[in-house]
Each structure stands twice: as C-alpha cells, then as structure tokens.
Amino acid sequence: MANKSKSVFERFSDWATKFTGSSYAFIGATLIVVIWAVSGPVFDYSETWQLVINTGTTIITFLMVFLIQKAQNKDSKAIQIKLNELIAANEKASNRIVDIEELTEKELDQLHCYYEKLSDLAEEDTDIHTSHSIDAAKRNQDYKYENFKKKHEEWLQKQKKESY
Prior knowledge:
With 164 residues, this protein is mostly helical. The chain has 5 helices and no strands. It is elongated and about 105 Å long.
C-alpha cells in the first residue's frame, strides 16, 4: 500500500515510533541525562537545574504514552486483520471468533471458558487433528462416547452369554 495516502501525523508517528525504539534514541536520552548530571555543579544543583530534567522528562513521557498507544492500536488492528484472514482461509477454523475484539470483557471470559472446555476435550483425544471447533470437538466426543457405550454393551452381552 502506498505511503502517499498517510497523513503528516501518521508519517511522523511511524517515524517517531521507530526512532524512539532505536539504540540511537536510548543513547541520546542517556547522553542528555549524563550531561544534565555533569552540569549539576555548574548550576550549584539549583532548583531550576532539577526542574529542567523533571519538566523535560515529564513532557516527553506524557507525549510518549500517546505515541506508544497509537502504535499499539495500529499493530493490534493489523494483527487482528491477519488473524481474521487466517481464520477465514482455514476451512477447519471456527468463523465464530472473527472480530471477537469487539466483544465485552465478560463475553471474552465466556468464550475463554469454551476454549478451556475445548482444551479439556482435546486432551482426551490422541489425535490433535480430530477436531477444529468447540462444536466439532463436542460432536467428536459424543461420537466416541456413544461408540464406547455401544462396544461396552456388546462386550457385556458377550460376557453374559459366556457365563451361561
């Protein structure tokens, strides 16, 4: 996709995110703190000298919170789109979980419980490829149980016949 359609803020935000996460930014920040500390005796460790670093770091921290959140939102959205594409492309994946990021926390907790149940059902399977959704896992588990019951009944009948 073309970068020409990006706004000035978005281009700046992308650049600032990459720069502030770089070694150069860390080295620059470290140098500023060292220069500030070394300049302490020159300014007699005055309140103004302390205020400079306190104010500077507070402003930078305040702005970085928003910059980090913007980058996080963009990354999260991109990851969600990629995951939705994988779910949509995989015939064995459950489409129920596409766009679940729009659910409430309570709804996500409920869904989490379903997947814990799926995990419990999967632990009972010897083949990890036998189910691909909660519904399929439940059907698979029910089928296995019914099949077991049927074979067990047959075995019991056989035992009865042999005991006569």
